[in-house]
């Protein structure tokens, strides 16, 4: 990157759950940022960054080329999923493949056509689940990839396209494999479809929190703001990180039963109602093996390379998430003219 001028950082998927948080973190710096999404991005007020908002459907011809023109860094945080409450996609979903894999393929093609200069850094937000089912409870990034779900296969395919292009000098690719992320995005379209927010919404509606297991399954839960800090750290260290994937996480696997009990208690504090019960239910037909596997992330390699570490205590992060979702639910009820809980 030419540090004699202000770098241009392009965030693709800037209105999404992850992309909006990355935009908010980058905006605190005196950078030139282009925020690209199908909907207008919310720009943080008073930000020292020079932020250009570009509304575009990146699957349309020419839009991606224009979006990344003169970029020194590209953050690829786009994601397609079906219009449901989860990130799952069906096998053979060509619309999902067009976004989750096709945009990575298109980006490689666009950057391959550039003439001269330092190849831009591309930071890709992948998933720790790309590894597929494994007997290891603690993942450190050395595991062979054998994904079984369509979402994980598509994320892995995109990652391989970018890292292969990195090996050929087209770009400097850094893949960050994310654990279970929770929190709240920046703006009305940045909705979290993860398990923590989904169960919080159930509790706010007065419904029981449900688990497909006995509650002892562990997850490494990373707060969204800390993830955004990790993406910025990857940008800062792109030269040394390029060419491989890196796992992100807190290093602590938390039993989901205990997490959901905390959620129920925090929601009760907000509503004044008794905590909703946390119950085990039969898993649905679409459940995958990974839904019943405990996962903790050893992110020591990324921490050593960048100096990054999570900054927010889990209890505080959970409290902020519940408070935001409670406030959002309250505004929605006021807008729709509906009062009280079911």
Automatic annotation (TrEMBL):
It comes from the Bacteria. Residues 9-249 form the NAD-dependent epimerase/dehydratase domain. It holds the Pfam family Epimerase. This is UDP-glucose 4-epimerase. It comes from Streptomyces aurantiacus.
